[in-house]
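Retro notes
What went well: the complex prediction finally ran end to end.
Inputs used:
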Amino acid sequence: MERERAVDPLAAPMARVAAGDRDAFGEVYDAVAPKVLAVTRAVLRNPSMAEEVTQEVLLEVWRQAARYDPSAGSVAAWATTIGHRRAVDRVRSVRAREDREDRVVAGEGRVEYDEVSEQVLQHEDEARVRKALKGLTELQREAVVMAYWGGRTSTEISAQLGVPVPTVKTRLRDGLQRLRGDLARGEPAAGGAS
Amino acid sequence: MDGYDGGAHALTPLYAVDALEPGEVAAAEAHLDSCVTCREELVEVREALAAAVADEPAEPSSAALRARVMAALDDVPQLPALTAPSAPDDELARRRAQHEGADRAASGPAPRPGRSRGTAPRRWVQGLVAAAAAVVVAGAAVTGYAALQWRADAQSAQQVAQAITEVAGAPDAQMVDAQAGADGWGSSRVMVSRSLGEAVLVPTGVEDAPSGRTWQLWFVSGGDARPAGTFTGAGSAAVLSGAVDGADAVAVTLEPAGGSQAPTTTPVAVYPLTA
């Protein structure tokens, strides 16, 4: 845990944001908003909802700026994490409602998701994500994409792929460890802005 | 191996991608509180995922989203910093508080290069306190001076913020870019609502006016320019004094300190207003 990390280019602007500096916030916004928008769009699959959540997330960055701890991760990862969490929370509440409606209307279980992991991503995103995850096996990549970009729980992934939950968890764990290792070794990530 | 039973450690990667079932989240967080290895893993996996996310390409709606967020800042009060830890023992309490406050986005401490553990958070907080104090001083100076300059019913920062929120919320609110921005004025924009008759300056990158000078805003109608307030260059947004009425544009000039009755220099920025 004493490993050193690269200096975050947003650390200095973020300190100024914490002091109420709007120009610095503009800098942070320009660096992280495209990423937050990308992750919320992937999870929500609805551009206007994604914009709403992105707006919430960036205002949260502003609100919480003084509580951001630079030693616990980069500003970009912090904002992306908040964005992912909020998008997932929203998509799950929508799905829960749809499930209830499905049961009432059709008297049967949920409508099968038509997506396999490729369809979770837009076509143009797929190549970039695939490149970022190129160190993973096909099965690991599928699980990671469905979980992170698709906003699915391990149980949902298990149901969709027809494999046991522990298998999904193994693929996720191994895939994420591999991704983490690739980043630590300085493998270029596909999509990153800087 | 295909089966996976890593105990509590096994929850961390799933927690990192928000893939746990609702009933599993509390156990994962309890474990993260006590497991340094998992905290480090969480931070690094999140870092790797963020790096793997491709930026969404800019679209026409991107600028509008940015404008909405910037305009909403005045509506969102910033939370104070959490108390700095006095000893590494406080690390856990601080981190817990951060988990709650920051959507559990952060975990385990990892000192940055060149800083020793324990002093880093304190220096960070001290820096913020100093910076915040500087902003408060600057803000107070503007407020005192502005009482005469800006519209009489919007003297306090809070009232200004409320007026800005009203303009931002108006159905016909428009964010206008400068036709030409000269050195020192940055990329500031003006937000206008014709129906409210109000205009707001949203400053970005405005430098302090040269000594003995001040930035002054004008409502321009035909060949006529009405004074709309002066601006010292301090960071926050401000409401233009006077009503928009039939103005064709908002202009900005550099004037002698105290402002002028009519522009004496060439505008550094002109904001055309649609009818």
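What we learned: Chain A has two domains: 10-111, 115-194.
What to try next: split runs per interface for comparison.
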